[in-house]
Amino acid sequence: MPELPEVETVRRGLQPVMEGARIERVETRRPDLRFPFPERFAERLAGRRIAALGRRAKYLTADVEDGPLLICHLGMSGSFRIETEADGSTPGTFHHERSKSEAHDHVVFHVADAKGAPARVIFNDPRRFGFMLFAERDAGVHPMLAGLGVEPTGNSLDGALLAELFRDKKAPLKAALLDQRLIAGLGNIYVCEALWRAGLAPTRAAGTIAGNGKVARERANLLATSIREVIAEAIAAGGSSLRDYVHTDGSLGYFQHSFSVYDREGEACAHSGCAGHVERIVQSGRSTFYCRHCQR
Questions:
Q1: 245 within a domain of the structure (yes/no)
Q2: Of the residues 49, 55, 58, 197, which is catalytic?
Q3: Domain annotation covers residue 233
Q4: If DSSP codes are grouped into helix, strand and coil, which group holds residue 176?
Q5: Selected catalytic residue, list 44, 128, 286, 292
Q6: CA distance 19 to 50
Q7: In a domain, 167, yes or no
Q8: So what's the pLDDT on residue 41?
Q9: How confident is the model over 155-185, as pLDDT tens digits?
Q10: Residue 8 belongs to a domain
Q11: If we measure between CA atoms, which residue out of 205, 273, 207 comes closest to residue 291?
Q12: At 222, which CATH number?
């Protein structure tokens, strides 16, 4: 599933075409994705402008003027494709080929920018795990967004906050970092990478970095810095091309070439002076990659 950097990259790719554009009409080519489309989905969007494109954790949001907030999730295999009248092809090359079959083009947004230039923004999802829902402005926060934790992209995520979130928690550190109620948007890949950078074992109890002692504070500060840096670098690199993920223009994300531990089982640890190697264990049904020699 695309993680926060991938979703942010998609948002940035869609922004020049969709933000400020008028939705001329919407085609829905099936009644549902993971969930049924909201009632009068196409009708309620047609004729309105998109004031802003946003992201909350792994969700894309579109603020529609005088309309609902549109919430989109890519699921496992969902992607957006931008096509203009001048060029009906998808630019870029695919390393892992994505479906271009119209059978998987489930939603088509026909939009026009401020000068009237038309474009089509197409949502393609072979597995149909993605979804599009409305958040009504008078109904408060949508249940999908309610209860999400702090974003890992700003300075608000620091050592003191991690200590507060993890205090007295006996769950493994990796599990705590993946808890979307605590930190929103972190996924398996970037948690593995951040823990490696911080030199912390994914199996240690989360509460061990929440103490008042100097060592605990240093661990919490280093982990917070590692998380922010990994996420920022991945966004700058355009995300990671794992399995189905590509940008809105069809090009690849390249952070995967910077992976230090993820999917590098058996390789020598990249930490200077470390004699260990990357191991793979399974935690809560997910692969964890780490070096037990330098991650304590």
A1: yes
A2: 58
A3: yes
A4: helix
A5: 286
A6: 5
A7: yes
A8: 97
A9: 889 999 999 999 999 999 999 999 999 999 9
A10: yes
A11: 273
A12: 1.10.8.50
Question: Structural domain tally of the chain?
Answer: 2
Residues 130 and 165 in one domain: no
Question: Could you identify the residue written with the tokens 């958040």?
Answer: 135
In this predicted model, what pLDDT tens digit does every residue of 227-272 receive, in sequence order?
Answer: 999 998 888 876 555 444 455 666 655 555 578 999 899 999 999 9
What span, in angstroms and rounded, lies between the C-alpha atoms of 8 and 82?
A: 16
11 part of the active site: no
If asked whether residues 128 and 15 sit together in one domain, one would say: yes
Distance CA 45, CA 48 (A): 6
Whether 285 and 178 map to the same domain: the answer is yes
Q: Is position 286 annotated as part of the catalytic site? A: yes
Specify whether 181 is located in the same domain as 128: no
Blockwise average pLDDT, block size 10, the chain, 296 residues = 83 90 97 97 97 95 95 90 67 42 92 90 94 86 91 92 96 97 93 97 97 95 96 77 55 64 95 96 96 97
Same domain? For 186 and 275 the reply is yes
Tokens of 181: 């109620």
Residues 116 and 218 in one domain: no
Maximum pairwise Cα distance, the chain: 62
Q: Note down the domain range covering 73.
A: 4-135
CA distances from 180 to 151, 174, 175, 215 (A): 10, 12, 10, 26
pTM given for the model: 0.85
**Is 267 in the active site?**
no
Question: Would you state the pLDDT for residue 94?
Answer: 31
58 catalytically annotated: yes
